[in-house]
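Case study.
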Amino acid sequence: MKLIVLAVIVLTVIAVAQLMRVYELSSKLRGHREEDINLKTNNINAGLMLVFITVFFGSTLYMLWLYGNGGLPEAASEHGVDVDWLYGVNWIIVFTVFFVTNSLLFFFAYKYSYHPERKAYYFPHDNKLEMIWTVVPAAALAVIIILGLMTWNKITGAPSDDAVVVELYAKQFDWTVRYSGEDNQLGYADYKLVNGENPLGVITSDNIDKRIAEIDDLIEQNQTRLDGIANGTNIASAANEYKLQHDIEKMGRIKQRIIKMAEAYNDSIYSKANDDFTSKSALFLIKGKEYQFVLRSRDVLHSAYFPHFRAQMNCVPGMRTTIKFTPTITTQEMREKTGNKDFSYILLCNKICGVSHSNMFLPVIVGSEEEFQAWRNDGVSTAMIVSSAVEVAEELEVEEPAMEAQAEGEEAVVEGEGGDHN
Amino acid sequence: MAATAAHGHHHKESFITKYIFSQDHKMIGKQFLVTAIVMAVVAVILSVLFRIQLGWPGESNSVLSFFLGDTWAPNGVLDRGMYLGLVTIHGTIMVFFVLTGGLSGTFSNLLIPLQVGARDMASGLLNMISYWLFFLSSALMLYSLFIETGPASAGWTIYPPLSIYEEAIGGSGQGMTLWLLSMTVFIASSLLGSLNYIVTVLNLRTKGMKMTRLPLTVWAFFITAVIGVLSFPVLVSAVVLMMMDRLLGTSFYINDAIVGTELLEQSGGSPILFEHLFWFLGHPEVYIVLLPALGLTSEIVSTNSRKPIFGYRAMIGSILAIAFLSFIVWGHHMFVTGMNPFLGGVFVFTTLLIAIPSAVKVFNYLTTLWKGNIKYTPAMLFSVGLVSSFITGGITGVILADSALDIQVHDTYFVVAHFHIVMGLSAIFGMFAGVYHWFPKMYGKMMNSKLGMVHFWITLVGAYGVFFPMHFIGIGGAPRRYYDYSVWENFDTNQYEMILDLNQVISVFAIIAALGQIIFIFNFFYSIRRGQVAVQNPWKGNALEWTTPVEHVHGNWPGEVPEVHRWPYDYSKPGFEEDFVPQTTPIGAGEEEH
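After joint prediction, the assembly is written out as follows.
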């Protein structure tokens, strides 16, 4: 097979080379020069310009008709409606420019193709014309800028006082939701406290104690191994020995930082975490409530992207970024509107974050207050609402190699957190 | 000057000093071009490989096995990590090695001395070093494709912390180290080149060559070099800081992160800092890529329309305006990074301002064509293609510059479509146009024009076929850098089908367009050997390069460097027999300059 392919390629090359020889000889005989484009060829190219623009515009319109909205349903959030309206305004301007300038370009390219009897019009500049096409775009852009900034300020403005605070915690390659509970305040968190039992690093006195105990354990284990090396019961390379020593020192420093942190915060903030609860199976939102999302990342950059709600914000390690929106259409309503009974909202990761980047997602459900309570209390109703989505989400979790050790002990379904620790 | 020329004539050069370690700007330009063509071929093959995965996700393909073997394409299915590696290296090579090094390196070197009337670059030695650093960095980048842990795969923007830890992604090990090394060398090359271009344009213009008589090509190269000198050093610093984070345990870009299972002590830095530094180069880089292409086409459009370029001073003004604005718009890449929204608003304003000089350029092109007498050489065809892609890609920039709209399509295929059309296509069209137009000046031969026309039409249709449908996928919210779109099965199967269909169409066009480039490669190398011998001024152009002999001589002009009396765009000027008036023709009695 490979031989045949190779043979075909070689023969093609030889054939083309021979054809070129023929072409060369014939053009030599005719006295043809490459830079002289004859009238016929020139006209063919000019004609193709018209053909091209017709086909191009035709297929643009066809695609607009088929895929105009990119397959996205209408905006399911309050500000999303504004964003879509702004898109509408911009599309009108953009498409006008697109069609007019491209038409002019290809029409001129056709109309003014070479003719031996015509001489081009010597027209080096015209201040009036240039003024027109500086001022007109400037005016159009002024409109775009003003409308754009008005919408932008609305989107990024401070959330209302009764906005529900929810944390989205990203890591390779899944999302965890932490609801702030009755007090609407998230417990503080710190990456130094992250371990199997406390995957989000929430700060409570219990978590601090457990983490310190864990670090002490680690230090002790390393020390035992080091001692073993020293008295010959344990064999390790110098590099390993160095690593053990290094880890002991590092964990010691981290322990000191944790203790300092605990002193700084004292007990005052711990209670905020009491009523927090987490979910890794879905993000449930109540229709009509404003949500203020606080985004965190454990490892690398991620981006929380809600295409149906027209919202996106990066998750940055060591930073808390925020984004807010108010869902306005429930999952059920959207399924009816789209006529797609399996439709579900989604949270995607939209910043390259590693090999399984394209598998990092979380189903989003929008429902009523009662449905939310039912979902929180009872995992079964979750399964009903998000149907197949959750199953796949759980399957994927098993496949993920990274963070396995840390992720142990995390539960897939809603998990009360604060209650356990205090 | 004259002494140098005389010296050049009598001195017989050895093979090595003539073809390899040459200090002659024309030879260096050709070296840049051939290296860039090799790099472009690699980058195109990489793109075809990942387009196969996107078009037919998860299907076994013998092309993938052939190129990637069992390691990176087990059973002919592309490895997930390698997918990201291919995307990363494709982007890096195209942006830096083909469209920066290749475009500026080739045409600034070839044309600046010829068009300003200089014997050579200000420093032939630095120029030679510039090329060899470029060669070295290209070799390093290619080498990184062959190491065990794979090439850099954090995207061409190498955002930390992903690019810092091998535990986060395999390519961030040795592959990223090589990437950073390669880029550092590349930037050194680019800076040496740029400084040389600037000095040459400022100091070595021939008698009568006022700045306002320079061809727009030279203006574009000149301003491009200035942008490069001001922005590339910032990338070097970003790269060096990243090296320190990776190798010395500093924390410029790291804050409170846990990578793999290891809790990092490095703390207090900011990943956002890198984004600022990167885009402070990254956005001007767009214009480093674009301006030379616009300069080349200005010249070609005017020559082949047999008409002066419309609004010469406005064209220069818009180049200057674009160059200035390009430094204060980088934040529009960062609307959703957590940057202060007020700052975002400022960047919306400055970014949208760029649309004004861009619009001026487009309308000036259109007016140049209007009432022209257009000859469709392959170069002219590609120039028309450039104006079209500049329009089509440029206007979607208006959407992306508007932060309120950007949040919806940020990092989706809409962005991919936008920058590939406005930057990728425009620049590569400009580059093709330049090669077809100045090939006689480079090799003293003519390229086959029929093949050039076929090449153009396949490329134009293929390229639009690839990038236009991407807008729709992006509007639908499909993120870029996804290995496949199977997550859609979980929430919207209708849209999933649309994405699959469009991706397949795109991949088919990508393969057609890639195969179409074989015509060009063949035409290029065949014509070097066997092309028709060129005449001195085949396109009947006005600029100085067409007054040099076809056969290259060291020092460019055998005798005195000619004196310049007018701008280079006196085409079809009333009162002249011919439809072109070379710059060396003195202004006649009672004639107005322009």
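Observations recorded in class. Chain B has one domain: 27-255+263-547. The two ends of chain B are 30 Å apart (CA to CA). We will return to this complex in the next lecture.
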